[in-house]
Automatic annotation (TrEMBL):
EC number(s) given by UniProt: 2.7.13.3
Domain Histidine kinase: 41-258
Catalytic activity, as annotated: ATP + protein L-histidine = ADP + protein N-phospho-L-histidine
Protein localization: Cell membrane
Enzyme class of the recorded protein, top EC level: transferase
Membrane-spanning residues: none
Record function comment: Member of the two-component regulatory system PhoR/PhoB involved in the phosphate regulon genes expression. PhoR may function as a membrane-associated protein kinase that phosphorylates PhoB in response to environmental signals.
Keyword vocabulary terms for this entry: ATP-binding, Cell membrane, Kinase, Membrane, Nucleotide-binding, Phosphate transport, Phosphoprotein, Transferase, Transmembrane, Transmembrane helix, Transport, Two-component regulatory system
MF term (GO), any: kinase activity
Gene from which this protein is expressed: phoR
Protein name (Swiss-Prot/TrEMBL): Phosphate regulon sensor protein PhoR
Highest taxon of the lineage: Bacteria
Length: 269
């Protein structure tokens, strides 16, 4: 009987009254764990058949001249949708992995400047003919303790979003710097922007401002949920400032104890 899981105590101390509510969440936690395990297992099990399907489709489409022209377009659509499903499974597995443990898989000083250099190259490739101008300013002496693969996943989600939601030839600025408050990484775009009422919900799983537009971009709706989890594990937090029609700035803030500062070599040395 689930009601047995809730217990209320009222305690009176002298003149003042205190109400103490003790709630047994054992069952809730068990259900939550079952949900996490279920999502992780299903994602894992779906991966293999999907790999077979995409593999065969790729082989068939490599021999275009042997395909009945009527089937070409449907097959290309099948390939595109299978790709979306693969992205979705990868993101679900990533979230499941992040939820399985409390701490990052690693705690080494990560060279954020080099990481961002490689993410910028990937973003420029993603932009392709859309020709976004992506600039990068990063302090090479400031490192961030944590897991490089987790941080790559979080930062690339922010940079790829900037590309996805910014019109062709738009401007994207990536920055990494430190000050008295800690370390900060910002991704600023000149894109479509976000209405204020959506901002607090952006990191919810599958939350999308405009579902039809977002699905055109090939996103999964899980990117910012991954960012939130990775930042939490690295004691960071996310700030979003946005103006519709002008652009957005996503900034990650990290406390001093997550940073490793190497002093710049003295120019007279
Ligand atoms: P998606 O895979 O849909 O991009 P995300 O979790 O990464 O999912 O982002 C959630 C939603 O937030 C997106 O669908 C989009 O509506 C909005 N969004 C994220 N980044 C930006 C941005 N840079 N500019 C405008 N909207 C954004």
């Amino acid at each position: 009987n689930p009601q047995l899981q809730l217990q209320f105590f009222i305690t009176l101390y002298g003149q003042s009254e205190h109400l103490m509510v003790v709630r047994d969440v054992t069952r809730l936690q068990l259900l939550e764990q079952m949900r996490k395990d279920f999502v992780a297992n299903v994602s894992h099990e779906l991966r293999t058949p999907l790999t077979v399907i995409t593999g065969y489709l790729e082989t068939l489409l490599d021999n275009v001249d042997q395909i009945n022209p009527r089937w070409l377009r449907p097959m290309q659509q099948m390939q595109q949708q299978a790709g979306r499903m693969q992205n979705l499974l990868n993101d679900l597995l990533m979230l499941a992995r992040l939820e399985a443990t409390e701490y990052p898989s690693d705690n080494q000083p990560v060279a954020v400047d080099l990481l961002l250099l490689s993410i910028r190259a990937d973003a420029q490739a993603l932009s392709g003919e859309r020709q976004h101008r992506i600039s990068l300013e990063a302090d090479p002496h400031l490192k961030l303790k944590g897991s490089e693969s987790e941080l790559r996943s979080a930062f690339s989600n922010l940079v790829f979003n900037a590309v996805k939601y910014t019109p062709d030839e738009g401007e994207i600025q990536i920055r990494w710097w430190g000050n008295e408050q800690g370390g900060h990484l910002s991704v600023q775009d000149s894109g479509i922007g976000i209405e204020p009422r959506h901002i607090s919900r952006l990191t919810e799983r599958f939350y999308r401002v405009d579902a039809s537009r977002a699905s055109d971009t090939g996103g999964t709706g899980l990117g910012l949920a991954i960012v939130k989890h990775v930042l939490l594990r690295h004691h960071g937090r996310l700030d979003v400032i946005s103006t519709v029609g002008q652009g957005s700035t996503f900034t990650c803030h990290f406390p001093h104890n997550q940073l490793v500062q190497r002093n710049a070599p003295n120019s007279r040395d």
